[in-house]
Amino acid sequence: MYFDITMPSALFAVTMISLFVNRKTEGKLKETLQEKQVGILDAVLLVGLMAVMIYLIVFVRQVALILMGFYLFAYSMILFMFTYIFSNNRWYVAILPPAVFILLYAFVRDTSFWMLYLVNIYGLVFAVLITLYLVGLYTWKTTVIFGVLLTVMDIILVLVTGTMVEAANVARSLDLPVMVSLPLIPLIVSDKGLLMLSLGLGDFFFAGLLGIQTYKKYGKQLAILSAIGMSISFFVFEVLLLNYWRGAFPGTLIIVCGWAPFIVWKQLAQRRSSRPETQVQL
Fold it and tell me: 199: closest CA among 145, 253, 274?
């Protein structure tokens, strides 16, 4: 019976780091974003645009080069922004992290050091930074709507059409930190070498978004429990995938299966507690 503790632990760590760091960064980021928020229509359009982009990546190969430029620009900007904000607006300090990232990508990306270590380190860092940057744009309502639509899209593109898997392979060929690939623990060695598991940054962001919004609506305790639930769900699904499925599976669905039971339980508990007690007089 194969199982893995690496990716569930990484998912839990990124979610918890995002959860607690967000409390310290939210105020400064709101000033930068001027408290803009994603509306319901925005959430629907965003998921639609994501689906269109995934199809373009697969069927229009020239988009891959545009994608590479977009990711390099986006990663550089987010590194610059966070460093700029937390270095007391010192641009000469803020320019260093994105410059180092671009130089490493340009000159080291063909090496095993980049492919095995740096791409995963940057992937985990970006997963946290992207979560902290975007989470303030969402309310509880838009988070739920976005989560449902994203999960449905993920199920269709992974299990029905397979387009998401093809898009991931194209993105991975660019050697960009768009996903995190970690060896399974306990180690599993096949004929092709050490077995690795990959999870996209979007899944890390999704888990962090759900965790932070749960914190805001229901408090610290339930947020931590939901983060544990998402990690346990990932562990259980991995056991099934490693032993019986051995194929791609929508990560968003796994995350929702671990998060949703806690939210449903909390809402049912709140409804029971809000009901007026009936008094029987004799």
Answer: 253
